[in-house]
UniProtKB/TrEMBL annotation:
The keyword Secreted does not apply. Coiled coil: none annotated. Keywords: Signal. Residues 66-111 form the DUF2147 domain. Residues 1-20 form the signal peptide. InterPro entries: DUF2147 (IPR019223). Pfam families: DUF2147 (PF09917). This is DUF2147 domain-containing protein.
Length: 116
C-alpha cells in the first residue's frame, strides 16, 4: 500500500516542478545595471534580486513555458504587486507589469552569460 502512495507522490512532484532548461532561467541585467535571477521554485519561476539595495528580495513569480510566462511582479521599492507577464526574445526579457490590465509599464532586461 505504501509503495503506490510513494510513487504517486513522486509523479505529482515531478509533474509540478518548473524546468531548469526553460528560456527564462538565468541571470538578467536591468537597465540600471543590477541583476536578477529567474530560477525554478516549485511549479513556477521566481525572480530574486542579486545586487543593490534589494539584494535577496523575491520580486516576481511567474508560470509558463517556452517564451511566454504570466504571474505576479513586485516593485521592490514599494512592495506593491502587479499582474505581470514575461516574454523572452532571444537574449532579452521583456517584463510588463499592469494594474487592472489597463495601465501597464514594461522593462527590457538583457541576459547575462549563457542561456539557461
Amino acid at each position: 500500500m505504501l509503495k503506490p502512495l510513494v510513487l504517486a507522490a513522486a509523479l505529482a512532484a515531478a509533474c509540478g516542478s518548473a524546468r531548469a532548461d526553460e528560456p527564462i532561467v538565468g541571470t538578467w541585467r536591468l537597465s540600471n545595471g543590477e541583476t536578477v535571477d529567474y530560477a525554478p521554485c516549485g511549479a513556477k519561476f521566481c525572480s530574486t534580486v542579486n545586487t543593490g539595495a534589494y539584494k535577496g528580495k523575491t520580486v516576481g513569480t511567474v508560470e509558463g513555458s517556452g517564451r511566454a510566462y504570466v504571474g505576479t511582479v513586485v516593485d521592490p521599492s514599494s512592495d506593491k504587486s502587479y499582474e505581470g507577464r514575461v516574454e523572452i526574445q532571444g537574449d532579452r526579457l521583456v517584463l510588463t507589469g499592469c494594474v487592472a490590465k489597463v495601465f501597464c509599464r514594461s522593462q527590457t532586461w538583457t541576459r547575462v552569460g549563457e542561456a539557461g
